[in-house]
Amino acid sequence: MAAPKKGRKSPGSQGRPGRALAVIVIAMVALIGGMFLSGHTTPRLGIDLAGGTSFTLEAKNQPGKPNAINTANMNTAVGIIERRVNGLGVSEAEVQTQGPKHIIVNIPKGTNAKQARQQVGTTAQLYFRPVMTTTTGGKTKQPSSTPSPSASASKGAPDKGGQSGDKGKQQSGSPSPTATTQGRAVPEALKADKTPTPTPSKTPKGGETGKPSDTSGQERLAKDFAALDCTTRAGRAAAAEKAANSKPTEPVLACSQKGDSKFVLGPSEVAGTEVKNAKARYETQGGYGWIVSLEFTGKGSDQFGDFTRKVSSQKPNQFAIVIDGEVASAPTVDRAITGGDGMISGSFTQQSAEELANILSYGALPLSFDIADETTVSAALGGEQLQAGLIAGAIGLALVVIYLVVYYRGLSLVAMASLAASAILTYTIMVLLGPGIGFALNLPAVCGAIVAIGITADSFIVYFERIRDEIREGRSLRPAVERGWPRARRTILVSDFVSFLAAAVLFIVTVGKVQGFAFTLGLTTLLDVVVVFLFTKPLMTILARRPFFGNGHPWSGLDPKRLGAKPPLRRRRPAAPGPADTKEA
Fold first, then answer.
1. How far is 182 from 347, CA to CA, in rounded Å?
2. pLDDT digits (tens, 9 = 90+) for 227-236
3. 298 exposed, middle or buried (CB, 10 Å; 0-12, 13-18, 19+)?
């Protein structure tokens, strides 16, 4: 008979279970340590649990662009809106597409809802337009060459700015977050200039800064301007919609965001897409205070230089920053701003400067949007729902434990220890995924975790039943644990693969909160495989060596008599013939 080859394990080989248990224990300790070191000990909660505001944006078709609503533009819009919202300091906002033309924006509790709505709602394209006429407080103004309020744009130590000859134009105090900033735009390199270079005033010819050259067009525009009422919300909304839907090459009427001013604006010569960067900062030199610095692209630098050269030579020497059909700021300019850098100064507060910089940086979108729905979720309601979900999970877990104790007796300890290991891994990973990838635990995710209890328990039951089948065939516990593992392993892998595949498909084809359910289900399914292979199986191998389980104690759940075991699978050797038999033979 040939000797068995060395290194090949028999079906009853028990391996080294201590190593596998050490690996998973080390992993759990590392995850727990990482959780405490990160400073996060609880999962990040979604808007339905923590409370907050949810916006649904609906994309609109733009004139002359029938196919503008497409996947590429929607994804671009999501990225820009997310940067704009995060520019408010909201690091936990969720922005994602839903269907072909909707974007869902979830902003957690603690964020200024009005300010966030302004940032989310102002999603049309951004344009720089020359101001042809402006009216403040119901009176038409022809701004002088000295802006109000403003900061000097001279070299040396700049002064704090001059007063306008028209008192009606002076804004009292700092503007509100939605107020039009009547400041001054100057080249960044000349912000310390003490004496502004005088520019001779001249009236441009028709078309030089976009003014309509035909008399009928001017009369119609003047008539519409006189009838425009920016003091009412309805009037501002109507003007904004009409301006937003107009072509960039057409003159438009527009209101300030606060409604205290109205404008006749010429065609746009610079689009917001040419703004490379905009930042709000506090300028201590010269008493400027809060300013907004601008940086343009190469193409935008040339365009903005030509644009400001034209605007500075006309009256009023003022241009408007128009977003979503409303004037966000209307600074004056007294010289061409070349080189691609400039700054806007005025009576900014920190908040108003940051908001204008945010709009300039992230305001240019490929699509226009309407706020189709706005929902405010209270934290109290989310807390009640979370409490109900946790109660449901506790009841389900209790029922599983009762079933395991009654039916499997001592084996239930193995199952409960495995469930505890799975719970530790799931909790720590969810906590770490919050700051890591922005994962937020919402109600569907809680449901996925509850469903995972059944999936994990099912894996234990499959393995326990395979072991019992081997004992019924007459084998002792130690070989039964090893011989039952290959068949149980195949069943567990196939079952978990199907569950993970379903979770992956659900995550891909769905949007919104349902993805939380799919993500949690997929995560816990993977962890089930890890726990069964590295914890449950090695633990059973170790316990099989203990007399309580190895000898089939009635409370071990592996009693051969209770399981109806067959006699041992051993063939008795025939008895050797005795002397009497020999004589007969």
1. 8
2. 888 888 788 8
3. exposed
